[in-house]
Amino acid sequence: MLTGNDDTSQGGRRNGFGRRFAASALIALFAGCGPALEEPEDTLEDALTETAPDDTQGEDTPLLALPDGPAPSQLAVTFTLGARYDATQSNITFRVYSSRSTRIEVYLYAQAQGAQEKVKYVLTKDAATNVWSKTVAVSTLKNTYGITGPVYYGYRAWGPNWPYTSSWTKGSGTGFLADVDAQGNRFNPNKLLLDPYAFEISHDPINPSNTDGTVFASGASYRNLDSGTKAMKGIVLPPDSTSYGAKPTRALKDDVIYEVHVRGLTKNDASISAAYRGTYKGAGLKAAALAQLGVTAVEFLPVQETDNDANDVAPTSTAGDNYWGYMTLNYFAPDRRYAYDKTAGGPTREFKEMVKAFHDQGIKVFIDAVYNHTGEGGAWSANDKTTYNVMSFRGLDNPTYYSLSADLQHSWDNTGVGGNFNTYNPIAQDLIVHSLAHWKDTLGVDGFRFDLASVLGNTCQHGCFNYDKFDANTALNRIWRDLEPRPAGGGAGVDLIAEPWAIGGNSYQVGNYPSGWSEWNGIFRDTLRKDQNQLGVATITPGQLASRFVGSSDLFGDDGRRPWNSINFMVAHDGFTLRDVYACNQKSNSQAWPYGPSDGGEDDNHSWDQGGAAADQRRAARNGLAFLMLSAGTPMFTGGDELLRTQYCNNNVYNLDSDKNWIDWTTSTDKENFRTFTRRLIAFRKAHPALRPDQYYSGTDGNGNVMEQLRWFKSDGTVPDSAYFNSGSNHALAWRVDGTEFGDPASAIYIAYNGWSSSVDFTLPWPGNGKAWHRVTDTCNWAEGDNQVANPGAETLVGGESTKYGMCGRSVLVLVAK
Length: 818
Fold this sequence. Notes:
Elements: H1 23-30, H2 44-48, H3 74-77, E1 82-85, E2 91-97, E3 103-109, E4 119-122, E5 124-126, E6 131-137, H4 138-143, E7 152-158, E8 234-235, E9 257-260, H5 262-266, H6 280-285, H7 287-293, E10 297-300, H8 346-360, E11 364-369, E12 379-381, E13 384-388, H9 393-401, H10 426-442, E14 447-450, H11 475-482, E15 495-498, E16 518-520, H12 522-533, H13 542-549, H14 553-556, E17 566-569, H15 578-581, H16 614-630, E18 634-638, H17 669-687, E19 710-713, H18 722-725, E20 732-738, E21 748-754, E22 760-763, E23 773-778, E24 796-799, E25 804-807, E26 811-817
Parallel strand pairs: 9-10, 9-18, 10-11, 11-14, 14-15, 15-16, 16-17, 17-18
Antiparallel strand pairs: 1-2, 2-6, 3-4, 3-7, 5-6, 7-8, 12-13, 19-20, 20-21, 21-26, 22-25, 23-24, 23-26
Helix pairs in contact: 12-13, 16-17
């Protein structure tokens, strides 16, 4: 959710963990082709003296006792909480957890909003499990209480700060003692509570039918306002047999990830029926087009039910809006606003149909999951401990579900948006694991990207924050144990990706996640953006570039992880688009609708408008995409980048639900050329396993053909020494990969990057016996057009060893030997 630059106050420099190099990286360094550490003060000589990992620890052996690709614990992912029909659909059993409540009632409704309950029941507590339950006959609900359609429900709870008394009535203060007591309880029976385990919910708190948020709040001014008629409610769903298709089993190293908003994907797409635009249905209709582009995994911004109905209150304003979706109200329910079929059960069925559409095209479906905080929010005022929203978790068991201050009176916040979810608490962890299992097994999801994932590594419930990947009891490590991660070589399981930072404390942890986890590599992004856009301002060495190009072994190689655990990206949803990184000198977030306004956003984006030259901006964007597709690691780009999508220099469009933020599918010559460039470069990556190594490259000859697996070159064709690698005055770097060691159709691949502002002649190395170099692509302006990336077999002959090739300033060259 946050940008997480490596040199900002959001995390500062990388923690000291993860500084040892993998053995293969040390070999490469010794051969004169190794990367420098990220920290500029560390020299290549320092890197050569780093201790290599113990050879007895295999590449797959985690530092914790977590087996590679463990079988999941069925008990760990099985749950009975929520509202469930029995096998005959004759009865409904309601189950909810609360360790601190003294009384819970379930209120049942025939409609979602605007009406009182039809009936209420008192739940019974199981003292051994702290689960409260009640079973109700469906026939009674229909025949006695007139609930003949969907069953809507919510809970009211009493506890130590507000004990039950029989004279209490809705909207009264009878029994009230305190909004929050010394134990952190915030029970308030005037607030109807959403079931944390509801499989669908009726609506969001703020919506066109209700614009009054005070009804959900505690505190002296609001505690006696009854929320029952306006509160969001769970919906009891019968079993559903909709298929989500056959899940792809592809290894993560072979994926190309497309990060996109499910609404923004098609809301502007004239090729989709108007009724389906912006919906799960519409997204499924784009699956074939994304497969044609070469996408293998689509990563949706949050689709768990989020607080976004407010976007429809004032459709031409950003006030109070939540477009991205990082304010989760419920972790089990697909967001109803994105469904064409909004009937009870419709969002669930439609989401599964969308997943099947992607699966039918061989595309995985990842979702962005936000378990670091919830949409219930934090304090209304920093100076008022009493006024909080009480809508779900907080009204059922506040200290269980939320991390609090040491005195239990306030939220503990490392998220910037309302307080940490209590991820170190076993019950809160149960909810996380159960919801993930639901999305994986019931809804068909193939992987998860975890927002502000450092909160999931917290080892403290209240009064502190401490990230520790070695603590086996963190949510991070429990997720890995219980959720059946996908094996390195592919197969059944889920892909687990962390956004490795949060706010404050020791939360910036790029490269320091437990073994098996993949991470958004913010250092890849920052290093390459600085090199492209801040020549003469920021110092980037060839060694730093080399580290990023070959999988960031300095970050991921010390604990048995592999190149593909680095999720390489140049841009993500938060920040500029790919085009805007090279077309905007600074953010412009205060523009009027439909371009903004949006508050926040990074001030230092490592961006530059290339002097205002549109052709140079497109060249820089081609370079950025080339970095992704030619580097070891797993590439990710954002939806619309293939069409040079712009956000008009707004770098924090979290609240902008407008046609200037949705993908613009209209075309032009420049857009089509860039889409073709993207499609062909993705195809080149897919066709060449040498670009997708499972292990870190070696600097030695592994098959006796007198060609090292990887070798670095200066522009003059010689091998760079440590002085060259560690000098920020050098801006030309090339590398050759021996394709024969990977079963690659090209016997060798040569990639050159000229980061200078002016042209440089590169002397080409030996291509192998009887081979010559052929050009796949040159990103220079002279080559722009629909054939800038050659189709297989149509590559242009360049020459053999010692041939000089003139590269324009700021360009990338790709050659194959044949």
